Amino acid sequence: MELYQTLETILTTPTPDQKITLFKQFYPLYLDGKIERDPSYPRVVFDHPSYKDFCVLSDPKEVPRRTKLNTQRGQTLLLHAIAHIEYSAIDLALDAVYRFRGLGEGFERDWLEVADDEVRHFEMIVSLLRELGSFYGEYPVHDALFESSMRTLDLIERMAVVPRYLEANGLDATPLILKKLYPYRSDPMIAKIMAALRVILDEEIDHVRKGDVWFEYACERENKLKSCYFEIIEKHYPQSFPRKVDVNFTARKEAGFSAEELSKISLTLC
What is the DSSP letter of 185? Predict the structure, then answer.
């Protein structure tokens, strides 16, 4: 089994069940060292996300709002949004290994570990969706995460944007969601959702930390200061910093953000 061809097949497979099955067939073989590598295998710049045939794509502003979390519809919309993030994150992690070659097995191992986590997160959330009588693809989604990957085709920008910006934003957002769910924690479904979110939050810290390590590596390789992070984020997401919203300083510090960086990210002192 050749690594890059296999990853391209997994990345472009048209349904979640097929993607997850293929990944679960591939990953144990990778861990056992039974994978060959052909660095000359051509890289494809994908022109559409892998979910285009089973999800309706919509402008982010048109995606249904996740309100009234004490209702079945509110819980379903929340879980559907999280499922979409986790499914997109599978592709983001696999694409990193597929696209950025020659960085050694440490890079491969890190991002395939992330992909394995994201597969597990997706399955966990989809299971809760099923309990509510729903499924991934029932509601419109946006392709912002896919677009972010296609706009960051070099290592330094990818590591800045995906783990250190988008996933790090999740470290801030998840505690806020948990806070909104807390008043309804006696509801069995809410309790399950909260438990799943805590697992995701804990493991996403490690994902951001991996991104921090490889962003720093890319900075050193390109002879750039780590502060170029802010230039990259301003290029792709203008006026993102500083923020008035709550920032999860504890998780971000654990994930590699320095006090100096956090002071630029948030208006609140860390």
Answer: T
* pLDDT (tens digit per residue) in 216-252: 999 999 999 999 999 999 999 999 999 877 899 999 9
Question: For the chain, which domains are there?
Answer: 3-265 (1.20.1260)
217 neighbors 224 (Cβ within 8 angstroms): no
pLDDT in tens, 175-185: 999 999 999 99
| Burial (Cβ within 10 Å: 0-12, 13-18, ≥19) of residue 58 | middle
**Burial status of residue 113 (CB atoms within 10 A of its CB: 0-12, 13-18, 19 or more):** middle
Burial class of residue 23 (count of CB atoms within 10 Å of its CB; 0-12, 13-18, 19+)? buried
Q: Distance between CA 247 and CA 267 in Å, rounded?
A: 9
Question: Residue 168: exposed, middle, or buried by beta-carbon count in 10 A (0-12, 13-18, 19+)?
Answer: buried
